[in-house]
Amino acid sequence: MQPTPRAARFRGRDVAGVGSLPSDGPLDARAWNTHVCVATAQDAAEKARSADGSVVVEPFDVLPAGRMAVLADPAGATFCAWEPRDRKGARTVNEPGAWAMSLLSTRDLEGSAAFYGAVFGWTTETFGVGDGAITLFRLPGYVGGEPDQPVSREVIAAMAPASAGVASRWGVDLWVDDVSDRRERRESWAAGRSVRARPPACSADTPRSPPISSR
Question: Whole domain around residue 136: which residue ranges?
Answer without folding.
Answer: 99-174
